[in-house]
Design brief:
This protein is mostly helical. The protein has 17 helices and four strands. Helix content is about 60%, strand content about 5%. It is elongated and about 105 Å long.
Length: about 450
């Protein structure tokens, strides 16, 4: 088996071909592991702990193409992680006299955790770019359809009118919430450096007067944060990643769930710009982008739960809790990376059908504005009589298929009441426009 046989994404169309696919592939993890190793050598050289010649030798030897991914994967079984065989191969590639400076003072978890943070950082950057695309597309939709009326739906049924602008503004608000969380986590991703048991003892033994200064130098080399403490079993960085990724998948999942509902054949108030086909039905234009986003939103919480479960890590290195993080974290990064891409494509191509929305406001023959009529008629008839009259009229509307406005116009008690505007759903969207404007003020 060659490296080309790994990570093709055959069963994962949600992330296949995305930036996240490239940044989380086995080859990307290998690059991150080698980057972590070379950065450690550079950081030690910056503090005078290793000769500068060692930096050049390690950097030259650490070309990813020189390492056999399949062999590393197979040999990782021996020690339970891929760092052990990689260090052996890298040390051999560097050779004498500088081979002994490879990985000096570090433990496998230092390199594995640091590489994981590098992979996360490199994956979150395009995620943030795609969230920006989605936000801008939704801002345009919200502004364009600020006053486009449509049925509001609660518990699957028509409730009162709303506007598509407000709905799009709500989607955008969730996207911005996700952006803020991802941005905060991206800026807090730390290196890991603790040595065998989190005391940095080996670095002191190799001549470091202040081993914590080495952690700071290591962080500078990699563009990550220097942690207050080694976090071998203090897994806040992983838990924070899990939280922001699961939230992002869910936030985009809300958008997808609404699009899936509104694009049903019977509703058709929106449609994806380029629907997917069917192997059996030539007429189909399936909402594929929304479908893939919805699938990711269903998987993400369980993956995050595994990562939260790994917080309960015993001793200074756990047997199993740390190892349990690797695959679900990569899956989460891939899922959210693909989902962010799909959300950007979905919103940039989303087609809105205001005529269908307006037509659907009349499906209940005026019952959608019964709340407003109750408020309008109570001062005229009294609250009890208004409720009684509207209840009777609603029952007749459902039974006879006549409009609520026509039935009310026949009531002698309402002869002098103008029912035109109060029975028009388009004139009962409340503060939807103002709320949309306020939402769009957020940057």
């Amino acid at each position: 088996m060659t490296s080309a046989d790994y990570d093709t994404g055959l069963l994962a169309p949600g992330w296949a071909g995305s930036p996240a696919a490239a940044e989380t592939a086995d080859a990307a993890f290998l690059r991150a592991l080698l980057d972590a190793e070379t950065a450690l050598t550079r950081a030690q050289a910056a503090l005078g702990l290793v000769p500068d010649e060692a930096v050049a030798a390690v950097t030259e030897a650490a070309a990813p193409g020189r390492f056999d991914l399949a062999s590393l994967a197979e040999r990782a079984r021996g020690g339970g992680n891929p760092v052990i065989p990689l260090v052996a191969d890298l040390t051999r590639a560097v050779g004498e006299p500088y081979g002994p400076f490879v990985h000096r003072g570090a433990t496998s978890q230092d390199i594995m955790d640091t590489a994981t943070m590098l992979v996360a950082a490199r994956t979150l950057d395009p995620v943030l770019a795609d969230l920006g695309r989605t936000e801008r597309a939704l801002a345009g939709l919200a502004a364009e359809h600020r006053d486009t009326p449509m049925p509001g739906r609660t518990l699957t049924q028509h409730a009162v009118p709303t506007t598509f602008g407000l709905k799009a503004a709500g989607w955008r608000s969730l996207v911005l919430d996700a952006r803020d969380r991802v941005t905060a986590v991206r800026g807090s991703l730390p290196v890991q450096l603790g040595g065998a048991a989190g005391t940095l003892a080996a670095f002191t033994a190799y001549g470091a007067d202040d081993a914590t200064a080495l952690t700071a130098a290591y962080a500078r080399e990699l563009g990550l944060r220097a942690p207050l403490l080694p976090w071998h079993t203090l897994r806040t960085p992983v838990a924070d990643l899990a939280g922001c990724l699961a939230f992002t998948a869910g936030a985009l999942g809300k958008l997808a769930a609404d699009v899936l509902t509104l694009s049903r054949t019977e509703i058709a108030e929106v449609s994806e710009g380029s629907g997917g086909g069917s192997s059996a039905m030539p007429h189909k234009a399936n909402p594929v982008r929304s479908t893939l986003i919805a699938a990711a939103a269903r998987r993400a919480p369980q993956l995050a739960a595994t990562l939260y479960g790994a917080l309960a890590a015993e001793d200074e290195r756990p047997a199993g809790a740390w190892h349990a993080e690797w695959e679900p974290l990569r899956d989460l990064l891939r899922l959210v990376g693909g989902t962010a891409r799909d959300a950007a494509e979905l919103t940039e191509g989303l087609r809105v059908h205001p005529d269908a929305m307006r037509d659907h406001l009349g499906l209940t023959h005026g019952l959608i504005v019964s709340e407003r009529l109750s408020a309008e008629l109570s001062p005229v008839l009294g609250r009890a009589r208004a409720k009684e009259l509207l209840t009777e009229a609603a029952e007749r509307t459902r039974a006879e298929g006549r409009s609520l406005a026509d039935l009310l116009a026949e009531e002698p008690e309402l002869t002098d009441v103008d029912l035109g505007e109060p029975t028009d759903p388009a004139h009962y969207t409340g503060s939807a426009g103002v709320l949309t404007d306020r939402a769009l003020e957020r940057r």
